[in-house]
Design a protein that fits this description.
Number of helices: 8
Largest sheet: 3 strands, parallel
Structural class: alpha/beta
Number of strands: 8
CATH class of the domain at 1-30 and 119-187: Alpha Beta
Strand content: 5-15%
């Protein structure tokens, strides 16, 4: 959701955003990708140990790319909060699950039925700042066709495509962090 919110904010007149980094998201997200993602978000499932959390995160986030055991553990520890009984629950905005299930409020900027797909091309055309798009080459959320269209429709769009990764790159490798750092610090 961060990339979508970033695009919406960057497109506003007078936006303070001077550079935008999008991690494997663009102005069009197909229904099939949303359908897959909705299976991972929602529900009140709890875990009895951090080991269970890590196993779950490794399974549902396998497309993040090759990570070390330490990085997987880091993701697991920061993906949950402790319940009073010693169990853990995933840490995320429950509204994301509602939206992905098509129960979005009429005021939700992506429309009342997000399962139709997300189409923000009109928003994309309003963004004026330089943009770096990081794409997992195996992503079903940001297709290579959508990335090509993003570059054709706007100037100042750079892309970093990462092989062997789907949605979404974990942004934990030096290659990924370094590319973003260079983009953000460029004069």
């Amino acid at each position: 959701m961060g990339g979508i919110i970033g695009m919406l904010l960057a497109a506003k007149t007078g936006s303070p955003i001077t550079r935008l980094v999008l991690n494997d998201v663009g102005p069009f997200i197909p229904w099939s990708a949303l359908y897959r993602l909705k299976g991972y978000v929602g529900g009140e499932h709890s875990f009895h140990s951090l080991g269970e959390v890590e196993a779950h995160v490794r399974r549902v986030c396998a497309q993040f790319g090759p990570l070390t055991d330490e990085q997987w553990r880091h993701l697991a520890e920061h993906s949950v909060y402790a319940l009073g009984d010693g169990d853990y629950r995933l840490r995320y905005d429950p509204g994301i699950g509602d939206a992905l299930r098509g129960h979005a409020d009429a005021e939700f900027p992506l429309g009342p039925n997000i399962l139709a797909g997300i189409d923000l091309w009109s928003t994309w055309s309003e963004i004026r700042c330089p943009t770096l798009v990081v794409r997992g080459a195996d992503s079903d959320v940001l297709s290579s066709d959508t990335l090509d269209q993003m570059r054709e429709r706007r100037e100042g769009v750079e892309a970093l495509e990462l092989s062997g990764i789907g949605h979404a790159p974990a942004l934990m490798s030096e290659e990924q962090i370094g590319a973003i750092r260079r983009f953000l610090l460029r004069p």
